[in-house]
Write a structure and sequence with these properties.
two-stranded parallel ribbon; SDR family oxidoreductase; Rossmann fold; alpha/beta; 9 strands; globular; Sc_DH/Rdtase_CS
């Protein structure tokens, strides 16, 4: 039976790389995000390559829209076997805490913390009924240490996502559900490009491996954590950081 993977924020960057990886591994992939045209374009490319992918336009910051989305998924597809929460925003990079906007703070928390939490709440009952499932939350190295670019608010959101992943992993381990987080350092994505511009590759030299991380390398870690090869691993926050934590 074909397994189903839902990739939030799946139309760009790490999420897009995850969608491709799961599709190549034979999963039926659902890509969801706010950008309808990007969702459709990605799914068409995956279909052209022989995979199975479906795009849904949904603002995951909106609890009602998120609930409607998962009800549609349940009606149109099989139960969710894997959830990858790749949704995330940087907020206001290089901004001092005292200068940070309350409105941007709320948006970062709604996107980086509440949306993944609501997505987990939506799929966990299905996974519990199946007696199996995997959730991987895409956090950041800023969930393990201070952010270089995103400041205190981005760091707070990613620390929260790591903590939520660990706590939920303990709760749901008895049901055969594994929940983990990945914590990348600087990754070559459109978001990083917008923040760092032409300095992106130079920043990669701060990693001991002396280069920038590619989105596909994070997707490999996400897929591995979701696979049976990681069947005894739950509750971890895996650095994908080129040796930075060392």
């Amino acid at each position: 039976m074909t397994k189903l993977a839902v990739i939030t924020g799946g139309n760009s960057g790490i999420g897009e790389a995850c969608a491709w990886r799961f599709a190549r591994e034979g999963y039926e992939v659902i890509v969801c995000g706010r950008r309808r045209e990007q969702n459709i374009a990605l799914c068409e490319r995956i279909l052209d390559a022989g995979g199975r992918a479906y795009g849904y336009e949904v603002d995951l910051r909106d609890p009602q829209a998120l609930g409607d989305f998962f009800r549609r998924v349940a009606a149109d597809h099989s139960s969710v076997n894997c959830l990858v929460n790749s949704i995330g925003i940087e907020g206001s990079p290089f901004t001092l805490t005292e200068d940070y906007s309350d409105a941007v703070f709320e948006d970062v928390m709604a996107t980086n913390v509440r949306a993944p939490w609501l997505c987990m709440k939506a799929v966990l009952p299905q996974m519990r009924a199946l007696g199996a499932g995997s959730i991987v939350n895409v956090a950041s190295l800023a969930g393990l240490r201070a952010s270089v670019t995103g400041g205190s608010v981005y760091s707070a959101s990613k620390h929260a996502l790591v903590g939520m992943s660990r706590a939920a992993a303990r709760e749901y381990a008895p049901y055969g559900i594994r929940i983990n987080a990945v914590c990348p350092a600087f990754v070559r994505t459109p978001l990083s490009q917008d923040i760092l511009g032409g300095r992106l590759d130079d920043v990669g030299s701060s990693h001991p491996l002396n280069r920038i991380c590619e989105a596909e390398e994070v997707a490999s870690a996400v897929y591995w954590l979701s696979s049976q090869e990681a069947s005894f691993i739950t509750g971890i926050a895996m650095p994908v950081d080129g040796g930075t934590q060392a």
